[in-house]
Amino acid sequence: MSEKMKTLTEPFKIKMVEPLKVTTEEYRKDVLKNAGYNPFLISSKDVFIDFLTDSGTGAMSDKQWSGIMMGDESYAGARSWEHLERVVKDLTGMPYILPTHQGRAAERILYGILGGKDKIFISNTHFDTTRANIEYTGATAIDIIYDEAKNPENDLPFKGNIDLVKLEQLIKEHGKENVAAIVMTVTNNSSGGQPVSMENMLAVRKICNSYHIPMVIDGCRIAENAYFVKHREVGFAKKSCEEIAKQMLRLGDAFVMSAKKDGMVNMGGLLTVKDEALSVKCKNLLIISEGFTTYGGLSGRDMEALAIGLTEVFDEDYLHYRIRSTAYLGEKLKAKGVPVVWPIGGHAVYVDAKKLYNQIPVNEYPGQALVCDLYIKGGIRAVEIGSLMFGKYDEKGALIPATNELVRLAIPRRVYTQSHIDYVLDIFDDILELRNQTKGYKITYEPPFLRHFTARLDKI
Fold first, then answer.
1. Structural contact between residues 279 and 94, judged by C-beta atoms closer than 8 angstroms
2. Structure confidence at residue 5 as a pLDDT band (50, 70, 90)
3. Could you tell me what percent of the chain has a pLDDT over 70?
4. Does residue 245 have a pLDDT over 70?
5. Residue 17, CA distances (Å) to 55, 415, 416 in order
6. SS3 (DSSP) at 438
7. 272: domain CATH number?
8. Does one domain contain both 42 and 81?
9. Coil, strand, or helix at residue 343?
10. Domain ends where: 285, 312, 339?
11. Angle CA(127)–CA(129)–CA(130) in degrees, nearest 5?
């Protein structure tokens, strides 16, 4: 794509359309109230622009749809499995490939084996399902990004990096025998979709070697991270994004992927490992819970589409469009005076709700207030990444808040056009006008794990 182009255009043309329902503000108020002020509980037919997640919400290409027709649905040893296995081995350099129905299934299998009571997992940032699967085993998940990266306004090229000094301190404090794994989330979703540098990954690999601790790469957005490395890190400008991704993945002992992100499919996951003994344990759990080792809960057509998607995602024109279209939304919001995590990440724009709604205390969930306002004003569904998602309680039941109160606008791949993004920008004009009138929320129901998915709330 020419750098001279002033208008960001989609590097694809539309072959099929899906109608969107236009609703009124009064209608949306009733919908939101009935959903307990939790957008996860809203029917998709009542959503106009869906930024809830980029996971499994993208549009597949003509080649992927063609691949679906060629899917081999044999129970064992299907051609589609062999195609996927070749692609994944080439990408990761790991010999043992296990397909799963989605990423959290791969997490449950791997962390169910590595975890357990008194075990410690250290990460740049564990995402919600990762943390839940680890804590469900009785283990502890600890996040350690650099302090400078916790400030949403700091303009740093690799705010997803793990703090290397704290990493060694934690290993020594807890004992290397108690550290189950170092988990590198690439890109770092919960810290604003921020990338991890190759330099940081190499340093983590060196530390893991010194203490004989496995490194797990949670790389569901590995292609997007590779784009940032290519354009921000010295020495990678002439390498392709695929070459960079391969170099990074070869640093890991295991690779966990929700293929619903950079796999470019609507369903699927991967678990790959280097160690044969670990792979046997993983395969046994896979067969018990997911399916046979050559389909792991996926149909042949799903595996065929995933094999094609893992190739298409590294197309340079696509990645340029993907990163720049996300940046377009973030840059325009910042220009309007909306506080965002800076610089803009790969798959989403993160709004600093604590700063935007500074009159709402953290125990009244300013992020959820913004999420609700976006739906009411424009039919836009987003997700809170703050104390509703990550907050915990102390012994007296008081909220221990998250580091930041963010709202994530996660952009599905190849779904929305420029005019949809401009519509979202228009709705934020309304948000800026009413922000001082907005009140907080209280939780009326919550489950013990992953409460943000099914919690119900009410206005203060």
1. no
2. low
3. 99
4. yes
5. 20, 10, 11
6. coil
7. 3.40.640.10
8. no
9. coil
10. 312
11. 60
Cα–Cα distance for residue pair 13/25, rounded to 1 Å: 32
CA distance 296 to 188: 26
The token pair that represents 381 in the structure block: 């569904």
336: left (phi over 0), alpha (psi -120 to 50) or beta: alpha
∠ CA 344-199-312, rounded to 5°: 60
Of the residues 312, 327, 357, the one at which a domain ends? 312
Amino acid at 106: A
State CA 456 to chain mean position distance. Answer: 23
pLDDT at residue 128 is higher than 60 = yes
* 3 lies in some domain: no
Which residues, in sequence order, are CB contacts of 321 under 8 Å at separation 6+?
Answer: 1, 8, 9, 10, 11
Rounded mean pLDDT of 397-421? 95
Strand 215-218 relative to strand 254-258, pairing: parallel
pLDDT for res 2: 46
Dihedral over Cα of 223, 228, 231, 236: its sign: negative
Task: Return the number of other C-beta atoms located less than 10 Å from residue 459's C-beta.
Answer: 13
123 membership: H or E segment, kind and range: strand 120-123
| Contact indicator for 84, 104 with CB cutoff of 8 Å | no
pLDDT digits (tens, 9 = 90+) for 279-322: 999 999 999 999 999 999 999 999 999 999 999 999 999 999 99
* CA angle at 120 for the pair 115 and 125, rounded to the nearest 5°: 100
| Secondary structure element (H or E) that encloses residue 270, with its range | strand 269-273
With respect to residue 44, please indicate whether it lies within any of the assigned structural domains: yes
The answer to whether residues 200 and 120 belong to one domain is: yes
Domain that holds residue 242: 62-312
Helix (H, G, I), strand (E, B) or coil at 15: coil
262-284 per-residue burial string, b: 16 or more CB within 10 A, e: under 16: bbbbbbbbbbbbbeeebbebbbe
